[in-house]
Amino acid sequence: MTVRIAIVGDEDNALPSHRGVNAVRGMFGGDVHTEWLPTDGPQVAALSGFDGIWLVPGSPYANDDAAYAAVRWARERDVPFLGTCGGLQYAVVEYFRNVLGVTDASHAESDGADQSNVVSALACSLMGEERVVSPIPGTRFSALVGDEPFVGMHYCGYGPAPGIAERLAAGGMVIEATAEDAGAEVLELPANRFFMLSLFQPRSARSPASRSTRCSSSSSRARASRPREQAARADRASAPIRAVTPSRA
Predict the structure, then answer these.
(1) Is 248 a member of any domain?
(2) Beta strands, E only, 146-239
(3) CATH of the domain at 137
(4) What angle do the packed helices 64-77 and 86-98 form, to 10 degrees?
(5) Which of 218, 233, 239, 241 counts the most CB atoms within 10 A of its CB?
(6) Tens digits of per-residue pLDDT, 136-151?
(7) Measuring CA to CA, how many Å separate 155 from each of 84, 185, 209?
């Protein structure tokens, strides 16, 4: 039986993050069909034929409402969901609005910077940046990738605003990994079969490499850890992708 995964986002091969998404699609396995669903297309409003949802980077989306609706649809129906970069950001806003009851929760990039932002600009933009991701032992994420830190690739300029990750944790989510300049790197909703959010971009050994590094000493630590086998590192960083399929979640 074929498992169908919807890749929700507005595919643009000029974006390194989207080239990375396409590079790892084969990691799902031969029994998994992946399909891009543009946020301004008709299919994104009819997700019932899909077994898992991956909301990918590239925000603001062509239709932000459709992106938020995809998050809510997966969360409320307990459909395996992975949100990376923009996917994490929009899932955070959706959770605040519809679970925590903060109906005016907003995203600084798409809604404008103000006091209602639960997602705001990172103090150090991580667009095209590598950082060392440190899984928190005992979490579901650490069960997927192991407890040892690894290098994660980022295409994010925004993340949970200061204090927001702690409010998410108090409201039912779990912080499962951290990284310098990113804070809460991975979030999970344990009430669901699989609902995981990450700021880093899962990648394969063929995915685009980092360009520059800046902002903090963590960038040099990321480079220092490169002697690890590239394939092994990519396998750990891509584990959430394989886990989003229902048979593996």
Answers:
(1) no
(2) 150-160, 174-179, 183-188, 195-198, 200-201
(3) 3.40.50.880
(4) 70
(5) 241
(6) 999 999 999 999 999 9
(7) 10, 13, 12
